[in-house]
Amino acid sequence: MATTADIKIGMCIEYNGKTYMIEDFQHVKPGKGPAFVRTKLRNLENGKIIDNTFTAGVNISPVRVERRPYQFLYEDELGCNFMHTETFEQISIPREMINNSDLMKEGQIVEVMFHTEKDSVLSAELPPLVEMEITYTEPGVKGDTASTNSLKPATVETGATIRVPLFINSGEKIRVDTRTREYYERIK
Q1: What's the pLDDT band for 180 if we cut at 50, 70, 90?
Q2: Which residues contact 173 (CB under 8 A, 6 or more apart)?
Q3: Are residues 31 and 71 in the same domain?
Q4: Domain containing 77 — which CATH number?
């Protein structure tokens, strides 16, 4: 059993019968009243983020999770099919359990998180940065900006739409941050 003093970002806990990952936390000691810990918890079953406040020192139930590398093979009516990179075991995961699944392309390595006691899939996460090719975007016109950070919509090879700077054109390769779904850099 752990307490709120042991909370870390990325830690998984059991709360109200469900498994949550701590996305963010803040220890608050007000001038009047007891201390408390304000947290953002992501439900690993459906991906929803909730805000929760724990009284300082209260017991929490940590959950042991294991991250395993899997390669995305293909998608069918059962979901997305993955293969373990070392054991070649294949599993199927529903698309809803994969964070930013529209940025995933065939052959890509993802980290699948397993609940170690139940040996069940909790979620799958793409690497922080992925390389994509722009399939369509409107051409940028020189002098078309009023500010330096103007963005335009662009469609990448997986069909996802992200916002890119005006100087990016169709056919170029870029890196996309999968956590924020934002343009990161152009690949030369």
Answers
A1: confident
A2: 131, 132, 133, 134, 186, 187
A3: no
A4: 2.40.50.140
pLDDT score for 139? 83
Whole-model pTM: value is: 0.75
Q: CB under 8 Å to 182, separation ≥6 — which residues?
A: 162, 163, 176
Lookup: tokens for 170: 């169709």
Q: Tell me how many domains the chain contains.
A: 3
Reported as half-sphere exposure (CB side, CA atoms, 13 A), residue 72 has a value of 24
Please name the helix (run of DSSP H) or strand (run of DSSP E) that holds residue 107, with its range, or none. none
Q: What contacts 133, CB < 8 A, 6 or more positions away?
A: 156, 157, 171, 172, 173, 174
Same domain, 43 and 6: yes
59-62 sheet: strands from edge to edge: 2-3, 59-62, 12-15, 18-28, 36-43, 49-55
Give pLDDT, residue 95.
85
Same domain, 42 and 75: no
Q: Is the same domain home to 121 and 133?
A: no
Q: Is 45 left (phi over 0), alpha (psi -120 to 50) or beta?
A: alpha
Query: In angstroms, rounded to a whole number, what is the distance separating the alpha carbons of residues 21 and 26?
Result: 15
Domain extent for 57 = 2-62
For residues 26 and 17, what is the distance between their CA atoms, to the nearest angstrom? 23
